[in-house]
Amino acid sequence: MEHYFLIKHLHMSAAALSITFFVLRAWWSVQESPRLNARWVKVLPHLIDTALLGLGVTLMLLLSVWPWQLPWLGAKLLALLAYIGIGTVAIKRGPTPRVRALAAVAAVATFVYMVGAAIRHSPLSWLT
């Protein structure tokens, strides 16, 4: 438990890096920029998101909390699955720039929901 605050803040920092880099890649995708094909652009998100997930699992283990015990945590993890799916449409699977842009907006909205669920400890997120 002595490392809780460090791990929590690393998790929050990884989340901030993840969404910042997602928005940048989504912009490049909508603009059909060749920057999206750079090797570091393809590798870095996986490193950041792996750290983010690993830190989240570490927090669950430290606190002995599980998604089936806390509705807000279960909702956050379901939203994470939606975010990943929508994010793939925004970055590479969307057939047109318009579809990719709409998916990017939906992915960012899903991310904002997850942040609200985590801060408010409620599946209603910012509505509570």
TrEMBL record:
| Record-level GO cellular component terms | plasma membrane
Origin superkingdom: Bacteria
* InterPro entries the record matches: SirB (IPR007360)
What would be one Pfam family of this protein?
Answer: SirB
Looking at the keywords, is Membrane present? yes
What does the UniProt keyword field contain? Membrane, Transmembrane, Transmembrane helix
Any transmembrane segments, and where? 6-27, 47-66, 72-89, 101-119
Please identify the protein, giving its name as recorded: Putative membrane protein SirB2
Recall the taxonomic lineage recorded for the source organism. Answer: Bacteria, Pseudomonadati, Pseudomonadota, Gammaproteobacteria, Oceanospirillales
